[in-house]
Amino acid sequence: MDISNYSNSILPYIPFFYVIWSDDLLSTSEIDVVKTAIEEDNSLSNSDKQQLKSWLKKDSPPKNELVKSWQQLITNSNAKLIESEVYPLESFSQKVASFYCKNCTANESLQNIELHLGIQPNHYNHLFNVEVVHQAYSDRFSGSDIDAIVNAPFLQEINTFKEFLKNPVFKWDVVRDKSKARKIVLKQVQTLAAGGWGALAYPKAYGGTNNIESYASIFEQLMFVDGSLAIKFGVQFGLFGGSIQNLGRKYHHDNYLKETGETKLLGCFAMTETGHGSNVRGIKTTATYVHETQSLIIHTPGKNDNKEYIGNALDSKMASVFAQLIVGGKNKGVHAILVPLRNEKHELLPGIRIEDNGYKLGLNGVDNGKIWFNQVMVPVVNLLDKYGQIDDQGHYQSKIKNPNKRFFTMLGTLVGGRICVAKGALAGAKMSLTIAIKHALQRRQFNDSIKVQEDLLMDYPSHQLRLIPKVASSYVYHTVLQRAMHEYANSTEDKRRIETQVAGLKAIITWFATETIQECREACGGKGYLLENRIADLKNDTDIFTTFEGDNTVLLQLAAKGVLSDFKSELNAGGFVSVLKLIGGRFTDKLATINPAYSNKVDKAHLYNPKFHLHALDFRLRRLTDSAAMRIRGYIKKGIPSYQAFLKTQTHLLALGKAYSEVLAMKWFYEFTSKLDDGLYKDLLYQIGALHGLSVIRKDATWFLEHGYLSGTKSKAIRQRVERLSTELRPHINTLVDGFGIPQHSMTAPIAN
């Protein structure tokens, strides 16, 4: 065989042309792809380019003798085809060429051909008479290394907790009977308390480490065990215990916090009412102060004023009840009061009525119930009075004079629970993705020849596109929620800002989780529908996350109002007009017109650049802020009350809240990534960020096109880059889901093993 006819630059193209003509892969559009790659390859001389193009004529293909000589050239090289490499055919071609020349290097033009033609190893490995290393994925990166990077501050505690969860009491099983499921979950919660994990966020004096960030990190791990366990754990230690810690004073801490952390005192968090779900300020339950007896009378006044959907209601002995505090005939707003529910024999106390909510779509290991109070008397010391007290003379006093600010300050102390809900939902998405992807790395289905090994599901571009961008987004949201909890835990100022941030993040992340888990269920076909494979329960258990701890639609409006008020105004009717003047003054100058050259820029360096992602998302946020403020101000100028003005712009505000949250997530992720040490993992995380950022922009492409930010050409290029990034990350996808840190003993789905 004579290779003297081929230059060193042509040699790497030989395996590509052999594959192309052996399987007759080329259509007219695909020929154009190859021609473009050849033209852009600076390693080729003009004569090289002419020779290669002469082999691309559909009406005059290379003769059989030539194709056979290519096969012999490949066989004689003794090169190995390693399926798991990032560009397996290009890498293989370089090995073939290197056998005949010493200066062959990676060729981006060949990589582009491999990507654009969508050539997968099992399409061509049977054509080569060489050793094929069948690997479904690459080991270039380590899942444990990625886990260590994204969980660095809490890694030791998380790993210790994972070992603790090996206790057989946490073994997952299919349990359909809610009574049995509740007993199992209660025992699990008590086991966690005995290990000191329940009190983690409490002060050291009460059995904890005063570290709510660690608490949030282990909460995520509980979702990998069972959703019901995570929620009951959160209710007992986070909501009930958290209300005592954050809304009470030393008296309440001394009397209740340690026993709560040990589960000697089981409690519930009674805020939501049947008639007033999201509108906490409008709840009807009352707590009327009686000075003569130094007591509070807790009462449910109407049929639909009962507490609704209260977790731990059937097991608890005490409730943290949110009610309108009435002192001296005047309503002082919503406050929390500790109300005993049962005696030592677990019998209901007089005036208390509790009913089981019954079976739910999911989380049936959690004992949700309805609670009514009929003139229930409790001592006034049971008022959680950090922000509002009743003195010995029966007078109400508070350092926070403004009732609205006092209300939001009290609720702001409970933002940690909202972060945990988002973390729990994201954990459900991570586990579903891990199951679906590990299944797709084993399951083979279809091809174009009965002689060829069937394709792995993960090698289908459609499968990559439906799952890999969601893995990227999961990493972005993971780091963002860690940042949110850090901001919340370390904020000493008014928590309204972090409340606004968390409201929006909770909404977009729980919706993301719901969408992701559904996609994973479908990606696994009938196997995903089986209970044993966990996705069905994850789907049902996390569905409620979009509406509890704040309905997402309401939360996005809260986030939008925070943007419009610049985090300073409480948006009451009197102060809103002045806020609009401030906003109007800031944004009345027209936003700069987007340069046509920018809206058409499609090169890789630009589209992968974090500055582009942030600029695009910030542009959308600024435009939506400007137009929303102007619309509302326009309505108010016409004499329409501010509340009605908000209703008329509600869908606009939802878009604004979502835009704000997506900017925040992207910004925080890139800030996290920029602080990492330079190297492969930093580059990998930037690649993940690019895939997430481009996916978000692509999802709202209509808006960007309408506002002239993108041209049709650039929008198409973004779509192509999302597909390409998904393909580039394909070899590392097993490592990436391992990087979620889900312990093997929790990965019980048969299709994932």
For this structure, the CATH topology of the largest domain is: Butyryl-CoA Dehydrogenase, subunit A, domain 3
Give me the Rg, rounded: 30 Å
Q: How far do the termini sit from each other?
A: 47 Å
- Helix/strand-derived class? alpha/beta
Helix content: 40-55%
Principal-axis shape equals elongated
Please identify the top-level CATH class of the largest domain: Mainly Alpha
- Content of β-strand: 5-15%
Low-pLDDT residue spans = 567-575, 582-592
- The number of distinct β-strands equals 13
CATH architecture of the largest domain: Up-down Bundle
In the residues, how many domains can be counted? 3
What is the CATH H-level superfamily of the largest domain? Answer: Butyryl-CoA Dehydrogenase, subunit A, domain 3
Number of helical regions: 29
- Average pLDDT confidence is 90
Largest sheet: 6 strands, mixed
Protein name: Acyl-CoA dehydrogenase
Pfam family, one: Acyl-CoA_dh_M
Keywords: FAD, Flavoprotein, Oxidoreductase
Cofactor: FAD
What descriptors fit this protein?
8% strand; single chain; 3-stranded antiparallel beta sheet; 13 strands; Butyryl-CoA Dehydrogenase, subunit A, domain 2; Butyryl-CoA Dehydrogenase, subunit A, domain 3; Acyl-CoA_Oxase/DH_mid-dom; alpha/beta; 29 helices; 753 residues; ACOX_C_alpha1
Structure notes:
- With 753 residues, the protein is an alpha/beta fold.
- It folds into three domains: 3-133, no CATH class; 267-410, Butyryl-CoA Dehydrogenase, subunit A, domain 2 (Beta Barrel), CATH 2.40.110; 414-752, Butyryl-CoA Dehydrogenase, subunit A, domain 3.
- Helix content is 53%, strand content 8%.
- It has 29 helices and 13 strands.
- Strands 3, 4, 5, 7, 8 and 11 form a six-stranded mixed beta sheet that branches.
- Strand 7 and strand 8 (330-340) form a beta hairpin.
- The two termini are 47 Å apart.
